[in-house]
Amino acid sequence: EQIDEAVRKILDGEMTGDYADRQLSNLDTPQAALANLGAGVRPNLFINYDFRIWQRYPSGTYTGVPNNIYIADGFIILSSNRDISNTFERVDGGGIKNASGPNCRIKKRLEGADSLNGQVCTMSALKSTGFFTKTVTITGASETADIIEQFTDDPLLWLHPGETMHAIKLEQGSTQTLAYQDDEGDWQLLPQPESDYATQLAKCQRYFFRSTASHYFS
User: Fold this and answer.
1) How many CB atoms are located within 10 Å of the residue 108 CB?
2) What is the pLDDT of residues 49-81, one digit of tens each?
3) Residues near 63 by Cβ (< 8 Å), separated by ≥ 6?
4) pTM here?
5) How far is Cα 103 from Cα 97, in angstroms, rounded to an integer?
């Protein structure tokens, strides 16, 4: 119970610094301590957070000019140069790679996003170029708008040529619980709630629907 209370205080920002580390396994960061304890990881408000599910492109490859289109389930891609084609690839073990082409914006519509208005939220992304995280107070969000645009002018928004985004998370609170650094300084993903493939696929199937002419003409 004492450890659970320490986890809660770290997640809520009430406990920081060396004292927090001593309370939670004496590790370098709260995230490392959470990984060691296997507890305290918040739900991810994004589904398909590691880009494993591509129902529209089951081969795991897209080539073309992404103009506000869905590629990996739930994620909209917008090219910064609509005269040049991009190739996106699904990465084994999780991730989406901008294999060729210009910079692209990652966008996400979130069901119930308006309920987050006025709340402090943290978005984090583990990319091949590093780990990025940012905390903001959500304002003016709606279900039709891109929730990621709340985190403006940030590496979280962009996928550069040759870069891979391995995982992304939006969570309520002022600290991230997506990843931690191990003893070698490498970033590792924390085990996420409901992150198994079957659960994520079922959630994606709730939104995916491909219409054909036969649905309208018989």
Assistant:
1) 20
2) 999 999 999 999 999 999 999 999 999 999 999
3) 85, 86, 87, 88
4) 0.79
5) 11
